[in-house]
Amino acid sequence: MTPQDLTRLLSQVADGRTTVTDAEKQLSDLTFESLEYARIDHHRSLRKGFPEVIFGLGKTREQIAGILEKMVPRENVILVTRIDPATADPLVAHFENAAYFPDARLLRIQKTAPDITGTGTILVITAGTSDIPVAEEAALTARAMGNRVDTLFDVGVAGIHRLFAHKEMIRQAGVIIVAAGMEGALPSVVAGMVGAPVIAVPTSIGYGTSFGGMTALLGMLNSCASNIAVVNIDNGFGAGYMASSINHVGVDKNNAL
Question: Which residues does the chain have with pLDDT short of 50?
């Protein structure tokens, strides 16, 4: 339930358009709703300004569908991350307003496009083309949370002139997400160009000694640039969510959905 939904319900009770009994029924699962295999946090929209996000990896299609059945009547936008096509396709066919983004492995149910409530533009950059799936997860998450999002792909340090050709775009961004594998050098370069916060996302792209993204992660954690924060390996969702949180500092969450 969003803050707007709660305000509308209370106004209807005050005006006599909804009975106290009916309102009580609608609020009976306001905190959470128990299923055999999940406890759905319906209160999260009120508490944090965005509904619970379903982590699809390890869940069956039936479990995801059951959770969605309970969430869809209450929320305008719902995200399911790390979901494979075989699981996602039947859900897209079943749920209205559902769309699947295979590169990002993300399913989105969105009844209406969210209002742009973030204060600036979030720019998502990748070092290479192979980093795009993680970047797309970040971009889709940030857009779903009411932000203007631009993308800039394949501008890594092996051809640094490609990055500098877009320096004005980079300098105008309010928050920047940089996804990079291999040695993970690009976030430091970007952070050295701007004063905006930079969220570094190490990806599991690289040869043997990249250790599935560990080399990039450690390099980013040891960056000389002081305006960098680092999320976990391949965690585009976490980067998009954090970028949105930064981009909404000072915005009243009760009016942000």
Answer: 257
